[in-house]
Amino acid sequence: MAILKTLVSIVLLGVLFACSTTAQNPAALANTNAPEDFLAHPDGTFLLQNARIIDGSGSPAVPDMDIRIEDGVIAAIGSSLPVDVDTVLDVKGATVMPGLVHVHDHIIYLSSPFRGYEFLLVDPHPFSIPKLYLSAGVTTVRSPGTDAPDLDIQLARMIADGEAVGPKIFVTGNFINGPDVPMMRGAVTEDDGRAFVKSQAALGVGGVKVYSDLGAEALKGVIDEAADQGLWVAGDLGYGASCAEAARLGIDTIEHGFNSCLQDLPALNQTGRPFKVEDHLQAIEDLIGVFVEEETVLVATPSGGAEANFSNEVRSMFAPFMRDAFDAVRVEDGERSESGNPLYTLYMRDQIAKLQRMFVDAGGTLLIGADAMYIPLVPGYANHDIMIDTANYFPAMDVIRMATSDAAEFLGVGDQIGRVEVGYTADILVVPGNPDEDMKALRELSLVFRQGRAYDPEKLKQGAVGRIGLD
To answer: Crossing angle of helices 149-160/10-18, nearest 10°?
Structure first.
């Protein structure tokens, strides 16, 4: 279970953010969080010419369009727009699409090699992880729980105010679990659950996270009080309340999708007997029926699958001691017996993907998050990996929609972000090639606009080199 060693106090965090430099060498970039140090072009008005637009709705791409950006907003889209702007960029041959909105993305990372869920030591990473998300075109994240919510709240505010670089952050607060779980808050009764949520609402978070051993009685208190407080409830379920119970109680999201449903589908957890979807169709259909009826959202965290990127560039993001631990995992490019998540084999990932396909076909809402908080996963790179992997099971345009407009709608900002549309915030990406035909094009991302500011993905990556495991 999770322990967060909060090494940076909120006061110190603010002081460190203030100590920025405009130098552009890698060593300097690692010591700054000032947004202007990572820009590809000066602030001002922009015109993107000859763009191939994916608007995020799921509709086919539209070629040869111009996009005008003013005051952080998409001001116009059309053919041959006036060029009376500060910066004109001809993006012919590239696709312009919405910034990614991923909803299971921590600002924390394990400070020691992944060994299992018995005992985890996790540190906040307010310097490296936000840069890596933005470098990958993830312009909005929902953090899925932390033991340092004050830090996430402060970081989210600083990014919103332009004092730090990173994506927009929707903050989920502390974890709550069943009783007698080491180092975690526990709850038994409905009143316990309500008291926990009240304590979180006072912090100013957007939602709370329930963990695997929390029972149905306490979960009811959490969900009912969260509804009263206007907070979402995210569930990493397992051995407490079942997924069906949680859905009927009104939980908003079930994290890790069907991987959380060990009570509903116990065969998922039977060692030595590989789970096969076809052997459990009635139980699966019954569970999906509950999800669809209750409008429960599932969040997939596939961790890269067969397409996961473990290049030397990715490895360079680890601090030296973490790099040594990474190398000990013995994960080699293209020759892996397991997925990026060391707990799930690729065979099981295929079975889970079948369940997700059945859920979506039945009318369910599936969203995406990387959960890149442990070796061998690196934020940003892992976000691309999950897009690529999910596109092995769903049409690429559907995956883009899940990770843009669908996620924005869930977060309550679907009228502001998640679309390339006039009046929307200019959170948009310039991607060489056609990601709707080959999602790997995301790995060649050339420009990230966040609120109309044009960021250089390479500068953002350089600002995180050698930092995972440290800050």
So the answer is: 30
- Look at phi and psi of residue 152 and say left if phi exceeds 0, alpha if psi is from -120 to 50, else beta: alpha
- CA 313, CA 319: separation in Å to the nearest integer? 13
State how far the alpha carbon of 86 is from the alpha carbons of 66, 278, 389, in Å: 15, 59, 38
Provide CB contacts within 8 A for 350, sequence distance 6+: none
Instruction: Give yes or no for residue 455 having a pLDDT over 70.
Output: yes
> Cis omega before residue 376 (within 30°)?
yes
Lowest model confidence (mean pLDDT) among 36-40, 82-86, 315-319: 315-319
- Integer angstrom CA distances of residue 462 from 38, 88, 136, 379: 10, 26, 13, 14
Helix (H) or strand (E) holding 268: none
Above 50 in pLDDT, residue 99?
A: yes
Q: What is the DSSP string of 283-301?
A: HHHHHHHHHHHHTPEEEE-
For strands 108-110 and 120-124, give the pairing. antiparallel
State the angle between helix axes of 190-201 and 216-229 in degrees (0 to 180), rounded to the nearest 10: 30
SS3 452: coil
In sequence order, the β-bridge partners of residue 78 are 66
CB pairs under 8 A, 24+ apart, for 22-26?
24/459, 26/462, 26/463, 26/465
Tokens coding 392: 């092995």
Cα torsion for 433, 104, 355, 2, to the nearest 10°? 140
Helix (H) or strand (E) holding 207, with range, is strand 207-210
Q: Which residue has the tokens 């017996």?
A: 337
DSSP 353-371: HHHHHHHHHTT--EEE---
Query: What is the pTM for the complete model shown?
Result: 0.92
Instruction: State both tokens at 306.
Output: 């067969």
Encoding tokens for residue 323? 């790099």
pLDDT, tens digit (0-9, with 9 covering 90-100), for 386-419: 999 999 999 999 999 999 999 999 999 999 999 9
Cα separation, 344 vs 69, whole angstroms: 43
User: What pLDDT does residue 112 have?
Assistant: 63
Q: What is the pLDDT of residues 342-387, one digit of tens each?
A: 545 677 888 999 999 999 999 999 999 999 988 888 999 999 999 9
Assign 56 to helix, strand or coil.
coil
The mean pLDDT of the chain is: 88
Closest C-alpha to 6, from 174, 162, 134, 182: 174
CA 404 – CA 359 distance, rounded (Å): 19
